[in-house]
Amino acid sequence: MSTMTLTAAPAPIRLGAARPARRTTPGSLRLTRRGRLAVLAAGLLLVALVGVVLAGVSVATSESGTAPATETITVGVGDTLWAIAAERAESGDVREVIERIQRLNSLDGGLVVTGQRLVVPAG
């Protein structure tokens, strides 16, 4: 037969108090899960509202602008993009005209082929 010895009384079980109450300092705020979600939703709504307000102050207008004057030319034998741009460069900076021709024609580089049609600034 076995014997069992109890030396101290077991601790009383408290119902309804799973964890000790936290002490809060005056002015502190504890949010529940629902409260945190409400604060998050309010913040997102505020950001969206600011975005809508700032989008209304866009610099775009409904008026159409005037297109820059351009001409269409055909590349001849021995023509290079630099030579074509040098003929059109009024300000003297050929590189700016080359960049503009490349943008107008969606060119990746400076290679042009004989017979190719290019849109160039009028001048």
Kindly report how far apart the N and C termini lie.
117 Å
Elements, N to C (H/E): HEHHE
Instruction: Give me the secondary-structure category.
Output: mainly alpha
Query: What does the overall shape look like?
Result: elongated
Instruction: Give the C-alpha Rg.
Output: 39 Å
The helix content is 25-40%
Strand order of the largest sheet: 1-2
Q: Please work out how many helical segments DSSP would assign.
A: 3
The strand count comes to 2
Main sheet, how many strands, which sense, barrel? 2 strands, antiparallel
Poorly predicted sequence stretches spanning 5 or more consecutive residues: none
User: What is the averaged pLDDT score?
Assistant: 83
The percent range for strand residues is 5-15%
Can you walk me through this structure?
This protein is mainly alpha-helical. The chain is built from 3 helices and 2 strands; from the N terminus they run αβααβ. The chain has a two-stranded antiparallel sheet with strand order 1-2. It is elongated. 5% of the residues are buried. The mean pLDDT is 83.
Main features:
two-stranded antiparallel sheet, mainly alpha, 123 residues, elongated, single chain
What's the short version?
The chain is mostly helical. The protein is built from 3 helices and 2 strands.
Present the secondary structure layout:
Elements (H helix, E strand, L loop, with lengths): L32 H23 L14 E5 L6 H8 L5 H12 L11 E5 L2
Antiparallel strand pairs: 1-2
